[in-house]
Design brief:
alpha/beta, seven-stranded mixed β-sheet, binds 5'-O-[(S)-butoxy(hydroxy)phosphoryl]adenosine
Length: 641
């Protein structure tokens, strides 16, 4: 048989695994940096600090650490305490005046077809200049800077420049709406917002500046808005507040080198908002030192990046995937990274495959929703292209259906590229449950915890569940890229992640572990819905609905959707004087879209007279979900009806 299917591999495994298993081919094993992953894993488990110290030694530090892990104030873990560094020193500074300065750091293609490339030298120059600009705008170490931009090189430059001067960036995904942006600017108290006139998506302009104008009206902290010219349509520039990026970069103040700020390993690098169980999105805090070590180690070992690779992480820099594995990780690994601005199917469903061919992409990392979306156009689109440059594939964001996995493996990877299904979260910062190229794969399973990571599946009481039995996924040892806290809300950090099972980190996911020790992620156990891999809180959708004058009460749930994974279905009780109609349903869908962003627009609105609630008044979304799918309602003893 060609490629990897059911090929025995004596190097990596000495036992027969259960179920459908794809073993790595001898070529994959030959190429792999780590051949005996079990040995590395055992070592890391035995000597956690030793493992991470070794990974950290591969990076540069202004001053080395006194202690690898300080767990004296659990669950506020600290890593590499006493160390001085700046992630930018390792992403850019250390390569200057070495051969690497001439290597491509970034190859970027715009949706209309324009191309820009940056060498490590060139990227460093731009980052220095923009860092000078930010400093001139009064941005200081510790200040938060909001970035709301399309997928263009300047978003990378803005993030790196902010980190360089010790500021804390808060990137808000460019698909979010006015309210979402405003809430995040407000909470972070940013004085500077960086945006663009617009971005290209599906042949149309996404008008980011307009959204910023609306949001900033209600944000008293904002003094300066920096605008990148991308789409060149007319935008309103407010004198004394709004400045063109290109004008600022031409000023004498932008010239020359900017000193990289010396940071403590535990100083914050960025905050990133994500949806949780309660209404308001919360910001997780990531730091310079441990985060840098975690993403460097995982990217290097899981995707085995080599000098000749061309790495494409097809996420948006606005999500953690982009932060860790578009912006910082590839630069730490000294890799060449590819970024594309637009939609995968614009102008035709072969856009991605033509990019893989044209730019010789060797590792492609994307989400199940994208794979399913492209799969639906059939094999002829990818088959028209030479995809032989690919050697590894990756998946992230939600469980990948075995069907989609196999299509990806066969049609895109031509039966020779192992699929790295990486389970992780905004909070974890780095891959947590993931194979490396030599680990035998089971389609639909993210396989095993990364080196030094320990995961468990436990029942309500915290006892490990038997093999193949569903339970709560928890992490039992700290890791360097872990979130340090929730921004401005340390109590919530403790409550949400460390209280259900003291000493164990609660992921919010349910999972099973099979007898081979492989993890199968099932989905969220909390009130989080994953739409096309995007994380949305039911409470946020419900608040948006209730903010409409016709709605008295609302409940949102996620139901299975062929492409999106899950789609939002909302149930609304109307206020007196309003009656159900298809027009009102449409109006409510749009209303949520305007409030939260198009991704949150419910698939379907159902008008109801009452909602299933517990006697204490909590909406039982679980019951709604079961009813919608014609499934048994489970334990309804607490139901009020
Ligand atoms: C949630 C975290 C981490 C990058 C993007 C998402 C789900 C993520 C997988 C995977 C099954 C996955 C989980 C997790 N998830 N990766 N490989 N298999 N589920 O980050 O928005 O913080 O979402 O995404 O439910 O808890 P996020």
């Amino acid at each position: 048989m060609e490629g990897g299917l059911k090929l025995k591999n004596p190097v990596a495994v000495n036992q027969e695994l259960e179920g459908e298993v794809f073993y790595p081919s001898p070529e994959v094993v030959k190429e792999a940096r780590i051949k005996d992953w079990k040995a590395v894993d055992e070592l890391a488990v035995r000597d956690l600090e030793g493992f991470w110290a070794k990974e950290a030694e591969e990076l540069d530090w202004y001053r080395k650490w006194d202690k690898v892990l300080d767990d004296s104030q659990k669950p506020f873990f600290k890593w590499f305490t006493g160390a001085k560094t700046n992630i930018i020193h390792n992403c850019l500074d250390r390569y200057q005046k070495t051969a690497r300065q001439n290597k491509l750091a970034l190859i970027w293609v715009g949706e209309p077809g324009d191309v820009r490339t940056y060498s490590y030298f060139g990227l460093n120059r731009e980052v220095n200049q923009f860092a000078n600009v930010l400093k001139a705008m009064g941005v200081k170490k510790g200040d938060r800077v909001t970035i709301y931009m399309p997928r263009i090189p300047e978003i990378v430059i803005a993030m790196l420049a902010s980190a360089k001067i010790g500021a804390v960036h808060s990137v808000v995904y460019g698909g979010f709406s006015v309210d979402a942006l405003q809430g995040r600017i407000d909470d972070s108290e940013s004085r500077v917002v960086i945006t663009a006139d617009g971005g290209w998506m599906n042949g149309k302009v996404v008008e980011l500046k307009k959204t910023v104008d609306e949001a900033v009206k209600r944000c008293p902290t904002v003094e300066t808005v920096i605008v990148v010219k991308r789409t060149r349509q007319d935008v309103k520039m407010e004198a004394g507040r709004d400045y063109w990026y290109s004008d600022l970069m031409k000023l004498p103040i932008a010239n020359g080198k900017c000193q990289t700020e010396v940071m403590d390993a535990e100083d914050p690098l960025y905050i990133l908002y994500t949806s949780g169980t309660t209404g308001k999105p919360k910001a997780v805090v990531h730091v310079h030192g441990g985060y840098m070590v975690g993403i460097y180690s995982t990217l290097k070992n899981v995707f085995d990046l080599q000098d000749q690779d061309r790495w494409w992480c097809a996420a948006d820099p606005g999500w953690v995937t982009g932060h860790s594995y578009i912006v910082y990780g590839p630069l730490l690994a000294g890799a060449t990274s590819f970024m594309y601005e637009g939609a995968p199917t614009y102008p035709y469903p072969n856009r991605w495959w033509s990019l893989v061919e044209k730019y010789g992409i060797s590792v492609l990392y994307t989400a199940p929703t994208a794979i399913r979306g492209l799969m639906r156009f059939g094999e002829s689109w990818p088959n028209r292209h030479d995809l032989s440059s690919l050697r590894l594939l990756g998946s992230v964001g939600e469980p990948i259906n075995p069907e989609a996995w196999k299509w990806y493996y066969r049609v895109i990877g031509k039966d020779k590229c192992p699929v790295m299904d990486t389970w992780w979260q905004t909070e974890t910062g780095m891959f947590m449950v993931t194979p490396t190229p030599v680990v035998p794969l089971k389609p639909g399973s993210a396989t095993r915890p990364y080196f030094g990571i320990e995961a468990e599946v436990v029942d309500e009481q915290g006892n490990p569940t038997p093999d193949d039995q569903e339970g709560y996924l928890v992490l039992t040892r700290p890791w360097p890229a872990m979130l340090r806290t929730i921004y401005k809300d340390p109590d919530r950090y403790v409550r949400q992640y460390w209280s259900k099972y003291p000493g164990k980190y609660l992921t919010g996911d349910s999972a099973k572990r099979d007898k081979d020790g492989y993890f199968w992620i099932i989905g969220r156990t909390d009130d989080v819905i994953k739409v096309s891999g995007y994380r949305l809180g039911t409470a946020e959708v419900e608040s948006a609905l209730v903010s409409h004058p016709a709605v008295a009460e609302a409940a949102a749930i996620g139901l299975p959707h062929e492409i999106k994974g899950q789609a939002i279905h909302a149930y609304c009780i109307l206020r007196a004087g309003h009656s159900p109609s298809p027009e009102l349903a449409e109006e409510l869908r749009q209303h949520v879209g305007t409030h939260m962003g198009p991704i949150a627009r419910p698939e379907q609105i159902t008008f109801v007279d009452k909602l299933p609630k517990t006697r204490s008044g909590k909406i039982m979304r679980r019951v709604l979900k079961a009813r919608a799918q014609g499934l048994p309602e489970g334990d309804v003893t607490t139901l009020e009806e």
